[in-house]
Write a structure and sequence with these properties.
By secondary structure, the chain is mostly helical. Helices cover 78% and strands 0% of the residues.
Length: 63
């Protein structure tokens, strides 16, 4: 444990470190990076659709 960090802080630090290591692995693998970017693009488009008020009206969430 790092000095001065609570157990929760330590858990977050460890998780952040693991995330950075995984990101490095993805960036260094062109095929894996391409798949991740394509997935991210699809997710971004889906989120944009959800914020579209016409879409929300169609599914009954807005008047």
């Amino acid at each position: 444990m790092l000095v001065g960090d609570s157990t929760d802080d330590q858990w977050e630090i460890q998780r952040d470190c693991e995330t950075l290591m995984r990101a490095k692995e993805i960036v260094e693998d062109p095929k894996r990076l391409e798949k991740a970017q394509a997935f991210f693009t699809k997710q971004t488009e889906a989120m944009k659709a959800l914020s579209d008020t016409d879409f929300l009206k169609k599914i009954g969430f807005r008047n």
